[in-house]
Amino acid sequence: MDKEVASLRKENAKLKDEDKSKMSLQAQIDLLQTKLATSYGRNEVIEDDYRRHREQQVQELLVPENPVFTRRLNIHYIAPTDDLQMPQDVLDYVSSHSNFTQKKFSTLAGGISHVDFVYVTRIQKEQFPSAEG
After folding, report:
1. Is the N or the C terminus of the chain less surrounded, counting Cβ atoms within 10 Å?
2. What are the backbone dihedrals phi and psi of residue 126, each rounded to the nearest 5 degrees, phi first?
3. For 119, phi and psi rounded to 5 degrees?
4. Average pLDDT over every residue of 111-124
5. Pairwise CA distance, residues 40 & 95, whole Å
6. End-to-end CA distance of the chain
7. 96 assigned to some structural domain
8. Structural domain contains residue 111
9. SS3 letters for the chain?
10. On the CB side of 68, how many CA atoms lie within 13 Å of its CA?
11. Are 44 and 119 a contacting pair, CB within 8 Å?
């Protein structure tokens, strides 16, 4: 795993600035797939801003050809508000194509207990309208 991360970092350093965001997205997907592919019967947490651009990332990860689908995983989705939670159509898709148990949580404390792996990204506050308006 460490060699893969080092390789991705080298490749990312070679890219032009405009291409780095693409590599970053793909690197995150690849690393998450690698982690999930090696975990059988583990409890996984994905904490994210699901309603924004990361929903596509999750859908790319959860394709039927991905060997992760043969695993028995417990996935905890954590988002502070209903607006940021994983969309129901994605939950339904995952349920119909995997052996995953999925739970949604609104607090980190509630969703992180008894987990083996955590994937976290920040909530993109700049995507929300200013409260001062």
Report:
1. C
2. -65, -15
3. -115, 120
4. 74
5. 17
6. 46
7. yes
8. yes
9. CHHHHHHHHHHHHHCCHHHHHHHHHHHHHHHHHHHHHCCCCCEEEEECCCCCCHHHHHHHHCCCCCHHHHCCCEEEEECCCHHHCCCHHHHHHHHHHCCCEEEEECCHHHHHCCCCEEEECCCCHHHCCCCCC
10. 24
11. yes
> Structural domain tally of the chain?
1
Q: pTM of the prediction?
A: 0.52
Q: How many residues does the chain have?
A: 133
pLDDT tens readout for residues 71-102: 677 888 888 888 888 888 878 877 887 778 88
On whether residue 133 sits in a domain, the answer given is no
Q: Compute the half-sphere exposure of residue 118: CA atoms within 13 Å on the CB side of its CA.
A: 11
Query: What's the token pair of residue 30?
Result: 């690849």
Domain holding 30, by residue range, is 2-127
Contact 77, 52 (CB under 8 A): no
Note whether 77 and 105 are within 8 A (CB): yes
CATH assignment of the domain containing 84:
3.40.50
